[in-house]
Amino acid sequence: MAHSACGFPVANTTGYALTIRQNDVAINPFNCRYLHFSACMPRHYSVNYVNDSLPEAPMRVTLSPYLNFDGQCRQALTLYHACFGGELKFQTVADSPPMPSGPDCAAALLHPQAIMHGHLVNQDFMIQGTDMSGPEGYRPGNDYGFGVSLDSEDSLRRCVEILAGGGTIAVPPGPTPWADLFAALTDRFGKIWYLNYFGSKSPQ
């Protein structure tokens, strides 16, 4: 069994989150810190290492689903709007300024009414969507990604630098009709990320 610097066991535990800091150890069964070890605690803790040298204040981030459609983005988000209410907006290919395109968007760009970007926003959540698919075209499995709304341009650029390491950038950071700064990328694990700094174009 592995032990921390102070001799506390850090493996073969379950059901509790064990946080190991550089200068202290804390067990958090119910988000309570600095509880004493008890022999009756179950095994298999989840172990997280926290680096105290990192900034304490996290950036403000909103995470939302970003859905790819095969030409049905408008119909789908309209259905979700009928269910959940809120504000629904679309940006079509015809309404969008010319943008650099590769094989990832070529097919959809042939259809002026294809949705470049759509979003449904209410007070509790946001759903974003598009008819723009990846290089291999639309297929189940590449039809979703993580939409992340960030609080500054610097935060967005920092996330691009981190997430794109070992991955690929599909859309470099730049302005779009729906956001002051937008970027799209696939990380080294094959997960798709759509990063927005809405700024003056905030949907809320």
TrEMBL record:
Q: Which domain of life is it from?
A: Bacteria
Q: Which residues form the Glyoxalase/fosfomycin resistance/dioxygenase domain?
A: 69-190
The record's Gene3D superfamilies line, in alphabetical order, gives: 2,3-Dihydroxybiphenyl 1,2-Dioxygenase, domain 1
> In this record, what's one Pfam family?
Glyoxalase
Concerning CDD domains, the annotation shows: PhnB_like
Q: Indicate what this protein is called per its UniProt record.
A: Glyoxalase/fosfomycin resistance/dioxygenase domain-containing protein
